[in-house]
Amino acid sequence: MFFKYNKITQSLSSATQDVAMGRPNTPEAFKVAVQESPEIVYDYKPLKVAEIQPSSHGESGVYLVPNNKRFKRLMSLQAQFLSADGKLVWQKFAADRTLYYLSAGLAAVGFIWSLYGLKRLASPPKNE
Hints:
It contains four helices and two strands. The chain is mainly alpha-helical and 128 residues long.
C-alpha cells in the first residue's frame, strides 16, 4: 500500500504507486529517457596470505605443513591424547584430573545437602 502527504489536510492518504513515488501521469513524462542507476562497486582489501614453510618431516607429503612452535605443540598434544594408553581424556593430565575430582566432589556434596534438606522437610518439628 502506498501513501502520499496531503498538503491541504496535512495528513497521509492512500495513493497509487506512481503518485507516491513522485512520477507524473502525463504522456510527456513517458517520453523522457530514464537514466540507469549507477553500478554497484564492491571494494575490498586484498587478503595477505601467510607464508608456509615446509617442515623437514613433511617433505614426502602432498600438502605443506606449518613449521612453527604452535603447530608443533598442537601435534604433540594430539599425539598425547590419541595414544592408546587406556586412559580417558580427563585422566591424561594432572590439571584435568584435579578439575574432574573437584566437580565430582562438589556434585556429591550437593547431593548429600539436598538429602539433608529433604529429611528436614519430611520430619515434623518437635513439640516442646
